[in-house]
UniProtKB/TrEMBL annotation:
Cited Gene3D superfamilies: Ankyrin repeat-containing domain
Organism ancestry: Eukaryota, Metamonada, Diplomonadida, Hexamitidae, Hexamitinae
Keyword NAD set for record: no
Protein name in UniProt: Ankyrin repeat-containing protein
Domain of life: Eukaryota
InterPro entries associated with the record: Ankyrin_rpt, Ankyrin_rpt-contain_sf
Residue spans of the ANK repeats: 196-218
Length: 248
């Protein structure tokens, strides 16, 4: 395909969507009079007199005495106070809720919340959740790799070779995001394919990242579901000669 021809979109850039929990003051999700509650919260559990509401309100208000007295009295099918605490950037209260680790709550984990909100000091305490997936099938390793947080990847390696709902790996997400500092740590995922047969090298080719391409040349003979090699993809998207020579 010539450079002037219409090009197919090879690798659509899809951001990982990580749900956020807003404070009680910012949302009506805990309003007992609202018929639409995020996280499927029932009216009985969101009453302003319920333990759930009161504990989350105490976190918002920095009421340490109330938190210490009532931290075990919470319905974790709604949202765990551990996740809520981290997402509200109050990690100082996290130690009271470590019994919430691995609680049944599929939209988010405390570990992912800590990574997304920059509380990397909590990772060692939360890494038991490294194999858990959140919405979209993403793991903490995938989130950290996409963000380029190489300093915490070793603690998250129990999630290596996991794939999300699109069969993407942490290596693919790092390659597609240009995070070269993460590539060598994730080398065990080399040669894995996503749902379209694409490899991490193909993600790097689409983004024309020469540094990452050089690190993933072991994949250069692999074909995607359309039968294309990384070299053929590079020519389709009009990569510069310097890049194409690497793939020959």
């Amino acid at each position: 395909m010539g450079c002037g021809a219409e090009q197919k979109v090879i690798l659509p850039k899809e951001d990982i969507v990580i749900p956020q929990v807003r404070t009680l003051k910012q949302t009506n999700q805990f309003d007992p009079n609202s018929s639409h509650h995020e996280h499927s919260i029932s009216s009985s559990s969101t009453s302003e007199e319920s333990p759930n509401f009161l504990l989350l309100q105490a976190i918002d208000d920095d009421d340490l005495a109330f938190i210490q007295k009532n931290y075990e009295n919470f319905d974790t099918d709604i949202i765990t106070p551990l996740i809520y605490t981290i997402e509200q950037n109050k990690p100082q209260y996290a130690k009271y809720f470590l019994n919430n680790l691995n609680a049944k709550f599929d939209r988010q984990t405390a570990l992912v919340a800590a990574i997304q909100n920059g509380h990397l000091e909590l990772i060692k305490d939360l890494k038991v959740e490294a194999k858990r997936k959140i919405q979209g099938g993403n793991t903490a390793l995938m989130i950290a790799a996409k963000m380029g947080l190489s300093e915490c990847l070793h603690d998250l390696l129990p999630g290596i070779k996991y794939q999300n709902d699109q069969l993407q790996t942490a290596l693919m997400l790092a390659a597609g995001s240009g995070k070269s500092n993460c590539i060598s740590i994730l080398k065990d995922e080399i040669s894995m394919k996503d749902c379209q047969g694409r490899t991490a090298l193909m993600y790097a080719v689409e983004n024309q990242n020469v540094e990452i391409i050089k690190m993933l040349l072991k994949e250069k003979k692999i074909r995607d579901c359309q039968g294309r090699t990384p070299l053929e993809i590079a020519r389709e998207v009009c990569c510069p000669d310097e890049l194409i020579k690497l793939l020959v």
